[in-house]
Amino acid sequence: CPCSPSLWLFPRCEINQQDMDLASSLLQFLVQQFHQHPVHLVVECAFALYILYLLSQKSYKIKKNPDALTEEEVNECVELWQPKPLVPTNGPKALKLNVVTSSCGERVTVNGVQAVNFASYNFLGFLGDRDIAKACEGTIRKYGVGCCGPR
């Protein structure tokens, strides 16, 4: 029949019985859902249409430079621009450096004051051991050092 709903859903020249059963069962399901839960079906269809609308839109819109300055405004900005100095004009300020005068251990001497060292990786207590320092010095004298670390 040319007016059957299956031709609207599947507009092909050849329609077999399986397509007819699928289209009629889908149509029956939609009609049944509309009669049982009309508001629910309308809301779901609205959401589906809104999702299709969102999928068809671009994720961003490129403005066609509405805030572009005219040549006259650019020249005025260039004339008014004063660069800030890279170095302060009143001279460099003296940096107060903290000087560590002891070997790195659990306690260090900083500017003549003994303090607890919380910034050390001396987990095993090897730093400050004179035997280990002599062994390291002997190894360096025998094998030398390079600019690259071991890999």
- Radius of gyration, Cα only, in angstroms? 41 Å
Considering DSSP H and I runs of 4 or more, what fraction of the residues is helical? Answer: 40-55%
Note poorly predicted spans.
Answer: none
User: Strand content of the residues, in percent?
Assistant: 5-15%
Distance between the termini: 80 Å
Q: What is the arithmetic mean of pLDDT?
A: 78
What profile does the largest beta sheet have? Answer: 2 strands, antiparallel
Number of helices: 5
In sequence order, what are the helices and strands, one letter per element?
A: HHHHEEH
Strand order of the largest sheet: 1-2
Global geometry: elongated
Number of strands: 2
Secondary structure class reads mainly alpha
Layout of secondary structure:
Layout: H1 5-9, H2 17-36, H3 38-56, H4 71-80, E1 107-110, E2 113-116, H5 130-143
Antiparallel strand pairs: 1-2
Helix pairs in contact: 2-3
Characterise this structure.
The protein has 151 residues and is mainly α. The protein contains five helices and two strands, in the order H-H-H-H-E-E-H. Strands 1-2 form a two-stranded antiparallel sheet. Helix 2 (17-36) packs across helix 3. The longest helix has 20 residues, at 17-36. The protein starts with a helix and ends in an 8-residue tail after the last helix.
Question: What are the main properties of this structure?
Answer:
single chain; 151 residues; two-stranded antiparallel ribbon; 5 helices; 2 strands
